[in-house]
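User: Please go through the entry that follows and flag anything odd:
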Amino acid sequence: MNVGFISLGCSKNLVDTEMTIGMFKNNNYKIVNNPSEADIIVINTCGFIEPAKEEAINTILEMAEYKKKKCKYLIVMGCLVQRYKEELEKALPEVDLFIKYKEYETIWEQISSVINKDVFGNTSKTHLELDFNERVVSTGKNFAYLRIAEGCSNHCTYCAIPYIRGAFVSRKIEDVLEEARNLAKQGYKELIVIAQDTSKYGIDIYGESKLAELLQELSKIKGIKWIRFLYTYPESITDELIKVVKENDKICKYFDIPIQHISNPVLKRMNRKSDGKSIRNVIVKIRKEIPEVIIRTTVMVGFPGETKEDFEELYNFVKEAKFERLGAFSYSKEDGTPAEKLKDHIHPMTKKSRYNKIMKLQNEISEEIMKKQIGKKLEVLIEDVSFDGKYYIGRSKNEVPDIDGVIYVEKTNDELFDKFVKVEIVDSNNYDLIGKIK
């Protein structure tokens, strides 16, 4: 039987999808990309914020249409199911099986109970939980995500992750390194270390953060050229971590620091562990130690009780900090979170206006920063080609795949896919660079 997969949401969710693909593949199922060819369609959902939930429902309904054709079984798993399984079962009878995140331990047994065992195939394991070593990486030949922990214990008042994924649980260093070595043997050149908060890695097991040590050990693996890590919270960025990033050539000079806000009253209502002063201080420290660093952040506008003055403080901070990368989103009321019960929720039009102002400002900042890249020479990994065939599309150490912009490189007659080349930047736009091979 043919199986097709759709993975929604974050990169951490994608790793679960990749492990599920591996599970099917190891039991002699054929993986297909076109849903019209699939006998089984598996959707891994996100339930983080309202737009993600809407996307998940729409995707389920769209895939359910294929049951009128070749598809026999529609399976839905992941975060949305963890939060709303009972409601989904009633609302979407087209789905044959809903699997909660916390039911992955018996995922294969559940699937086998739905699919006819004559075509299901035999397996020696009746309980087959998702296995990192059985992953089928779906992100191409060059990079793979390396998930080092699950869940979150920060309990920000707006966030449902702790209720969906549970408390923060680190993987053992030796297990992470084993997976990384396997990925290197498969030819992956870049590892992207992820968790809900990578800066907390190891605290629950070893009593202290082990992110810096882990990055050092990963850098010793032969075949790995670039290592980057995402989602470090400002209060947990240590001098040791900054030093390792500064001194280790394999580790990208890139910090992803989701600050969410800068106003102390808002940060307090969010239950964030940093205040405005400490956020400013850590950014200044990183830039002082690593002048060439790229700092990415996310900010939230329209949190309950956010005053005009709170927003102006955030706006002015973004203006002065000049983040190389910044994403913004409007507060979304999520079921069961403490913020849902807060007073003074902001009108949707006010939230939209504040979001637009922040993004307009960041657009101007990004354009200014990109222009300063003209004339620089960068090592670029070529991964694709433009629609018109005139340019290669690549990334340097400064761009996270699928999040940041790209570098368009004037096409030559050489076969350069999946290769690293030296590129001189000759032009820019708001978020992308244009270069030529030197």
Remarks:
- DSSP finds 14 helices and 18 strands in the chain.
- Residues 348-371 form the longest helix (24 residues).
